[in-house]
Amino acid sequence: MKTALRFDRLDALRGIAIVWMTVYHFCFDLNHFGWIKQDFYHDPLWTWQRTCIVSLFLLCAGAGQAVALHQGQSWQRFWRRWAQVAGCALLVSAGSYLMYPQSWIYFGVLHGIAVMLVIVRLTAHWGVWLWPLGLLAIASKFIALYAVSMSANLQFLNEKGFNALGWISKLPVTQDFVPIFPWLGLMWWGVAAAHYCLKHHRTALDGAAPAQTGWLAWLGTWSLTWYMLHQPVMIGAMQGLKALGL
Fold it and tell me: φ and ψ at 96, to 5 degrees?
């Protein structure tokens, strides 16, 4: 089987998101163990960083789907990769329940990506319509916020069985929450942007990446593995330091 060509520039962009996420989580863990004192849940310094990191990951995920379809990825190969993402999402839920039983992750970034990947795969051929659809997906979040706040009949959207849609008026108690709306809009924009580049400015994606970014491109090829391992490694190391009385 012929291996699909990697797009180093896209991988490097994903690598930037990985580095940023790792630094963010390192600071989060320092805060968890009491070595720094920060409000990661309300301070804009941290909440906006989280938004930017998730946005970059989803734009890259959308672009990656556009590239995969451009290279003729089969449904069989898609489902194989999807199963890896979905399986890792379940592991994140289990691990977070052990560490944060009152705020475990039931629909975090990997859960959201698993659902949105299927939607994106089915709609990626819609071309330029993905731009306004992405805008509508993002706008629906704010429209729903107003509607749910004003209507008692819509309060069911805040319940755990429905809040994965993202049409909520209050955030759930969970360590990570990436609902379908508005985040599907970012992934759709990633698809649309990659389609445009592949058609009009192909070298923006498949051109050679600067030599000094090679390590970022390498990270980008192992994004899921890094995502799953970096927190257990950092938390384990910090627990070890705590046990030594440091």
Answer: -70, -30
d(CA 103, CA 77): 34
Work out the average pLDDT over 184-202. 95
Tokens 């993402």 belong to 85
Q: Where along the chain do its domains lie? A: 8-243
d(CA 130, CA 189): 6
Q: How far apart are CA 188 and CA 130, in angstroms?
A: 6
Find the distance separating the first CA and the last CA of the chain, reported in whole Å.
Answer: 52
- Integer angstrom CA distances of residue 77 from 69, 74, 80, 178: 11, 5, 5, 25
Q: Look-up: residue for tokens 């989280």?
A: 50
Specify whether the CB–CB gap between 58 and 113 falls below 8 A: yes
How confident is the model over 147-179, as pLDDT tens digits?
999 999 999 999 999 999 999 999 999 999 999
Alpha helices in the chain (DSSP H): 8-32, 44-70, 75-99, 109-123, 130-150, 180-200, 203-206, 214-221, 223-243
Q: How many CA atoms lie within 13 A of 33 on its CB side?
A: 18
| The dihedral formed by the CA atoms of 92, 8, 213 and 217, expressed in degrees to the nearest 10 | 20
Identify whether 44 is preceded by a cis peptide bond (ω within 30 of 0).
no
Q: Where are the beta strands (DSSP E) in 23-113?
A: none
